[in-house]
Write a structure and sequence with these properties.
By secondary structure, the chain is mostly helical. It contains 20 helices and no strands.
Length: about 475
């Protein structure tokens, strides 16, 4: 081996070492402007377009392409993009709210008003012990009946409408509109896509963060995906907005006002996504934002029948089945804690009494907090659990030992009467909508975050951060409310 060869393989200590080069590159990285990667991508696409223009002959743009570009000038414009997005989602929610009332009433009459007494009579006729009858019928069946009657109609309307927007090619335009805001908040532009997926299911939204290459930005997307209202929370938002917000307006405007309230909560969730992303990217997850290219698919004519079929099979029935699977054991738990007594009061009464001071302090009540504990497995059963516990805690059930819970649900007025009996006010309704948006993810989402991140620490952050934020937000709203409303 020659001396020159040896010197090449083993550089002298007086020369520049590889570690020095890496350290210098790391230091210079932070001196690059924030839009450096974006400029590289933009330059690459501009060069590609210039090459294509030099070799491709275009006798005339197709009418469809021209129409797509004309529509995009409106829906992705700085002036009209966001107002049109808000208007379109308001329309979707209004159709959902206005169309779900009557089917919910019919289902409630069938499953609760008729089905529940019939099952009780059958149980009495065959001599079923009251403990077993109460557990199966007053607990498991009645909770499931609530889930079906409250959730099925709005889901059967909302999901096809949302799927139509997705299939027509509009949702990628929403992601395009939000891309700049995500980059300004220090997050990845693809987080807009995972957030859109989170509006269907937060667990699916967490899985969708795989499209983000940067581990730091992917972690931000996982932590903040919970602020996108998932399937299980839409029925709660819609029903509470209808009962407490829409009721303040004249009858002919009630549906529109309720829809506007739901859109407002949705927009708040998007705002919190930006704020929390910005906070994380500037503190514990500080780093450089990367860029990406987003292809906008062509607009497609709506395939209404296929969309209705796929949305009902893949989304509505899937979510409903998941809700039923969790509602059955939740109903059993509710009945058991309501009928197992310790020193006189039931376990449910002990829990509600213990948490009620905290609940009232944040504009909620003990029933709601207990319901959120019971409903950790799935957001779908929060509202039925609240209603069941309210009936139990207010004594609105059949007299007699272990009689269980029996109530009628013929309309939304009956639901409102139950909540009023539980001491609900307008503040309770508003803060429930806020807490439904800002609270811990469901157990499925928590497990998915752990599986995708591989970190117990960041999974705990993703689970506890929304809870802390939700308690703070509802506390502030309750205190401000108390200052202005006697």
């Amino acid at each position: 081996m020659t001396a020159s060869t040896a010197e090449t393989m083993h550089p002298s200590t007086d020369g520049v070492q590889p570690d020095d080069i890496l350290s210098t590159a790391q230091a210079l990285r932070w001196q690059i402007s924030g839009d450096f990667h974006e400029k590289i991508v933009e330059a690459a696409y501009a060069e590609a377009a210039a090459i294509a223009d030099s070799v491709v002959t275009r006798p005339g743009a197709s009418p469809r392409l021209a129409l797509d570009r004309t529509i995009d000038r409106i829906v992705t414009s700085r002036l009209w993009g966001f107002p049109l997005m808000i208007l379109l989602f308001t329309l979707v929610f209004w159709i959902t709210i206005a169309g779900a009332n009557l089917p919910s009433r019919w289902l409630a009459m069938l499953l609760v008003d008729w089905g529940h007494p019939a099952l009780k009579q059958l149980a009495d006729g065959i001599g079923l012990p009251w403990q077993l009858s109460g557990l199966l019928i007053d607990g498991m069946y009645l909770t499931t009946a609530w889930v079906v009657s409250v959730m099925l109609p709005p889901m059967a309307i909302f999901f096809p409408l949302f799927t139509l927007l997705e299939d027509a090619g509009y949702l990628p335009r929403v992601a395009f509109n939000l891309d700049n805001l995500f980059r300004k908040s220090g997050a990845h532009g693809k987080q807009s896509l995972s957030m859109m997926m989170g509006f269907g299911c937060n667990a699916a939204g967490v899985v969708a963060t795989r499209i983000i290459d940067s581990p730091r930005e992917r972690l931000i997307a996982m932590i903040t995906n919970n602020f996108a209202l998932c399937n299980g929370r839409w029925p709660t938002q819609i029903l509470i907005a209808t009962l407490f917000i829409g009721a303040l307006a004249p009858a002919h405007l009630a549906g529109l006002v309720s829809a506007t309230a739901v859109v407002g909560v949705t927009m708040l969730g998007i705002l919190l996504t930006f704020l929390v992303s910005a906070g994380l990217s500037r503190t514990v997850l500080k780093g450089e934002a990367s860029a990406y290219s987003l292809e906008l698919p062509p607009y497609r004519p709506p395939r209404i029948l296929q969309t209705i079929y796929t949305s009902i099979i893949d989304r509505t029935l899937y979510v409903l089945w998941r809700a039923i699977v969790f509602a059955l054991p939740a109903g059993a738990v509710i009945w058991l804690i309501a009928n197992i007594h310790i020193g006189g009061p039931s376990i449910a009464e002990h829990l509600i009494g213990f948490l009620n001071p905290v609940g009232l302090l944040i504009g909620l009540n003990g029933v709601i907090l207990v319901a959120y504990i019971v409903a950790i497995p799935a957001n779908e059963i929060v509202l039925p659990t609240i209603l069941m516990l309210t009936v139990l805690s207010t004594g609105m059930h059949e007299a007699g030992a272990g009689a269980g819970v029996i109530f009628e649900l013929a309309s939304q007025n009956a639901t409102y009467s139950i909540l009023q009996a539980g001491g609900w006010t307008l503040l309770t309704g508003i803060n429930l909508m806020l807490f439904s948006l800002i609270h811990n993810p469901c157990s499925t989402t928590i497990y998915t975050i752990y599986r995708e991140s591989g970190s117990a620490k960041w999974t705990a952050v993703a689970a506890l951060l929304p809870v802390v934020m939700g308690l703070l937000v509802t506390f502030v709203v309750a205190q401000v409310w108390g200052l202005f409303v006697a």
